[in-house]
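Database export, one record per block. Field names are fixed; values are copied verbatim from the stored entry.
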Amino acid sequence: MKPSPEERLQRFPPIFLRLLARHQHGEAKTIREIAWQGQLDEMLALTISRLASWDTVRMADAFAFMRGCGINVFEPRDYRRLMVYIKGKKTPDGRVSPKYAHLRKSPAWQTELQPLAKEWERLIKERNP
């Protein structure tokens, strides 16, 4: 059975899509690039990128943010990619251990992306105790 649109949005929150936003050859996208490609205000893109759910995001802004990230949770190809990433390698306690290789190369890793990655991992633990 296919997941509902609500289930897809719940499974893949903005913070997760921000971490996966990258150029075709693997380099992480900047917030400025996400905002420009999604035709969003840069501060709005930054605010959305830090959210753990879509609950407070207008649908038009959600689709614009997804477009900016280059990921649409409603497209089958993107959905499969997201599922593969979520189901990736598991740690001994059964959690997925993302490597963030494309993010670690970014100049924004320590200042912006690493804190987001830590927050995402905290959210995963919270969701799957």
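Remark 1: The mean pLDDT is 87.
Remark 2: Residues 109-127 form the longest helix (19 residues).
End of record.
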